Recover the amino acids of this structure.
């Protein structure tokens, strides 16, 4: 069956370091992959989208890579700040489907 | 632009009661969807709609009904609430991918959520 996996354990890093979050998927042929940020008690907020034919996408301090051979996406936040502390969700959208399916999310905690 | 609005923010129901969660968007998006979020389970798709008059089932549709009579509104109905439906419910609407024209979901905007408890 289709599965999207994100590290369920929280990622704790020091301010200024680069945070790297992982999204792995199986039995899926995604047309593209998205990353969202979710703060406690609020709805997710869209961050970035990367298509299957793109290797890397950047937006300010954010970088996403997409390796369809490894079936993996990496999400990087450079020069991390305490304000980056949140849960980050990946989501996949496949060909011949109208459904966007989410992973369970990884909580990031950035300490001063 | 109000974006995506949801009402109510909180609701407590008794088992067997029915209710409708309201969702509206003012961005003229064709695609709208409902998710539920439970601890450790992430966001799971309940129902979605690709335009007025068209709805389809997501991953966990049982116990829920939807309709889409207008582009703006996408209500979610619980016909007979069960404790297993205790969750946080999010409605979302999406822009389309202008580059390809094929993909219906590009940037997805979420509402603030409805926290539902069924006792």
């Amino acid at each position: 069956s289709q599965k999207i996996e994100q590290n369920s354990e929280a990622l704790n890093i020091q301010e200024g370091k680069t945070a790297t979050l992982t999204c792995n998927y199986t039995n899926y042929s995604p047309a593209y992959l998205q990353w969202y940020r979710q703060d406690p008690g609020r709805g997710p907020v869209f961050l970035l989208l990367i298509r299957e034919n793109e290797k890397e996408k950047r937006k300010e301090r954010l970088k996403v890579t997409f390796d369809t051979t490894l079936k993996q996406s990496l999400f990087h936040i450079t020069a991390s700040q305490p304000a980056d502390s949140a849960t980050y969700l990946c989501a996949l959208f496949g060909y011949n489907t109208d459904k966007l399916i989410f992973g369970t999310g990884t909580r990031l905690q950035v300490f001063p | 632009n109000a974006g995506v609005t949801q009402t109510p923010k909180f609701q407590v129901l008794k088992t067997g009661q029915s209710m409708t969660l309201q969702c509206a968007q003012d961005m003229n998006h064709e695609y709208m969807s409902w998710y539920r979020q439970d601890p450790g389970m992430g966001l799971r798709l309940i129902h979605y709609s690709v335009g007025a008059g068209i709805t389809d089932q997501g991953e966990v549709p049982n116990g829920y009904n939807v309709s889409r009579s207008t582009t703006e509104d996408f209500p979610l109905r619980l016909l007979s609430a069960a404790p297993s439906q205790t969750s946080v419910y999010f409605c979302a609407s999406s822009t389309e991918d202008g580059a390809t024209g094929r993909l219906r979901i590009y940037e997805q905007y979420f509402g603030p959520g409805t926290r539902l408890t069924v006792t």
Chain A is about 0% helix and 60% strand. The CA atoms of residues 21 and 58 of chain A lie 15 Å apart. Chain A touches chain B at residues 8, 31-32, 34, 36, 41-46, 49, 89, 91, 93, 98-105 (CB under 8 Å). The radius of gyration of chain A is 14 Å.
